Amino acid sequence: xxxxxxxxxxxxxxxxxxxxxxxxxxxxxxxxxxxxxxxxxxxxxxxxxxxxxxxxxxxxxxxxxxxxxxxxxxxxxxxxxxxxxxxxxxxxxxxxxxxxxxxxxxxxxxxxxxxxxxxxxxxxxxxxxxxxxxxxxxxxxxxxxxxxxxxxxxxxxxxxxxxxxxxxxxxxxxxxxxxxxxxxxxxxxxxxxxxxxxxxxxxxxxxxxxxxxxxxxxxxxxxxxxxxxxxxxxxxxxx
Length: 239
Ligand SMILES: [Zn+2]
Known about the structure:
Blueprint: H1 2-13, H2 15-33, H3 36-43, H4 51-75, H5 80-106, E1 114-115, E2 129-130, H6 132-151, H7 158-178, E3 182-185, E4 190-192, E5 204-207, H8 214-234
Antiparallel strand pairs: 1-2, 3-4, 3-5
Helix pairs in contact: 1-2, 1-4, 2-5, 2-6, 4-5, 4-8, 5-6, 5-7, 5-8, 6-7, 7-8
This protein binds zinc ion.
C-alpha cells in the first residue's frame, strides 16, 4: 500500500518522476541482493529487518520525494519556486539513494565501520557507522539520482542535488549515532537495534530516544536532503 501510494503520487507528478522512482527502487533492490548472505551474516544481529516493516520503510524513504514532486509539478518548472521545489524533491530521493548505497556497499568492507561522531570502530550495521567506501557510495547514489533526473529532463541543478543527497545521508548517520533508539540484549550482552534479538530475547532501551527508530531517521534524512538542495538552488549558488 505504501509503495503504491508513493508510486501513484510520483506518476501523478509526471511520468519522468515515476520512471526515476522505479529506477531508484530497481537499483536499491539489486544492491541489497549483492552478496546478501554475507551482509546478513555481518549485520543480522544488529539491524532490524522484516517483511511488514519494509512498507513503512518505502514510505519513509519515498514519501517526501513523492509529495514534493507533486507540489513542484503543480507549480510548473518554469516558475522559480517550481525549480526550487523540483530540486528539493530530487534532493530527498538523492538522500535515500545515498543512504541505501552507503549501507549496501559500505557493509561489504572487511574492516568494521567507524562512528561518525567519535571515529571509534563500531559493529557492522550500527547506525552512524561509516567508512570511506560507504561515503564514496553516498556520492555515487546521489549522483545517480541527479544524473537520472537530468536524463529524464527534470530541470534541477545536478550539483545542488548531489550535495543535498550527500548532506541527507550524513544527517542520517549523525542522527542515527545520536538520537536513534539504541537497545541491548541481556542474553548475548551485545548492543542492537532490534526490538527482539536474533536469539529470541526482548531487548531493552539503552540510549537515544525510544520513538526515534530507523524509519524516522530516514524521514529526517530525506527532509535534510530536500532542504539543502532547495536552499542551494534558492540562494542561486547553483543554477
Ligand atoms: Zn541476543
